[in-house]
């Protein structure tokens, strides 16, 4: 660059003026500034920010002593307990990559992820011992297994060589043996079901994790020392980044094992919870809970809703309860939330119905996500802001994944044209806000979880009586969406809806099983391709005629 006087002036990047971005720095600062503030509440247990730092360092040093280092994968199957939050700091502190796994998956899928991610260590809650044990049986090379033994949970059994507390006991609370030298370094691995084939491993970097943590605070307007209730699974996009956000916020995490309306509302009252997140199913539970369970909440509560477009009746019911809802949108590949329906001041004058319509849109890009657009996927040109022309939502910027692990073809396809292709179809409203109209992929989002329709169809095809199978999403008052299967049987063979559902339960995780099965002839094109759009129309017609 040129100096003000026109002479050549080389200004170098040094340790004085450049430090790699990592969310680990949030924990270090908060433990220094607010050491005695409560970081975690879980039942009768209280963990201060100083203690959280000490325990995270113990995890890091114990992992390092076990031979775990930079780039190694540490997998976790656990509930929303303090251990999950500690691992979000302890694992990357030794340079390793945190891989939180969905507790609702079946053994075959878990074993694939453990093998594909090359997990060196698996930390698992005893509640999930049966499914995890079956997954481990499918592996030729098994990771070190460490059990989380939660006194508040009755049942399950041990799988590991040691339990979590024994493992930490050998760690050093003052350990500072590893430092992040490159913000592009991987911090987390998250698997997404996608639409075809095996799950894809989405790799996050420290820079993106740092920035999404701050953007969560900025775009939600979170004040310092928020009280955050963990209704959102920590295994999902690292709790959408809020595991790290709470450290930047110096807030308090209220943990809970089970997500139930009465438990949530009780926790909100008892701990004066200010913020919570979740898929539409979580918000619907609260919106339609019995009136007696809602009584006694007299402070302001903010809810963040994502995973699928929010049903207007749910937003309306929560607004009437005094819970302020903000719609966010994103995907695993963009660190979870990457767009927000940022509320405008003039919306305050709108009636409830019009306000809900505005707030149910997916909105505008997050503060630190550099690009969000609705583009024609063929021309890569922006669609007009007319609220009618459909294009594909695309992202680019610091909150975009490094790519898919061991899958360069899928990465290249996803990044074609210099943008990440979401696969979601939307319009751009006259005010510049994005609104989803359809999905170009046949992924069903049920309770915030992606269900691969092809996986369901493959399971149905293993039944000897099934000739053709097609699975589409149907509206579900509890889960937002649920799978509906359309089946054409082999001539001369009979099978009932109950039989086919039970068959799927032997092949799939429970949440993936179709809630409804329709048996009959399937509509096809002249080349024999099943016309799913007609099945959706048929389904909607039957719903509205009931």
Write the layout of secondary structure elements.
Blueprint: H1 24-33, E1 38-42, E2 45-48, H2 49-65, E3 73-77, H3 82-93, E4 97-100, H4 107-116, E5 119-125, H5 129-137, E6 144-148, E7 162-163, H6 164-169, E8 186-192, E9 200-205, H7 206-220, E10 227-229, H8 237-240, H9 242-249, E11 252-254, H10 261-271, E12 275-278, H11 280-287, H12 291-294, E13 301-305, H13 312-321, E14 323-331, E15 336-340, H14 352-359, E16 364-365, E17 371-375, E18 391-396, E19 403-404, H15 408-414, E20 420-428, E21 434-439, E22 443-446, E23 449-452, H16 453-461, E24 466-476, E25 480-489, H17 497-505, E26 516-519, H18 532-545
Parallel strand pairs: 1-11, 3-4, 3-5, 5-6, 6-7, 10-11, 10-12, 12-13, 13-14, 25-26
Antiparallel strand pairs: 1-2, 8-9, 9-19, 14-15, 15-16, 17-18, 18-20, 20-21, 22-23, 24-25
Helix pairs in contact: 1-2, 1-9, 2-3, 4-5, 7-9, 11-13, 13-14
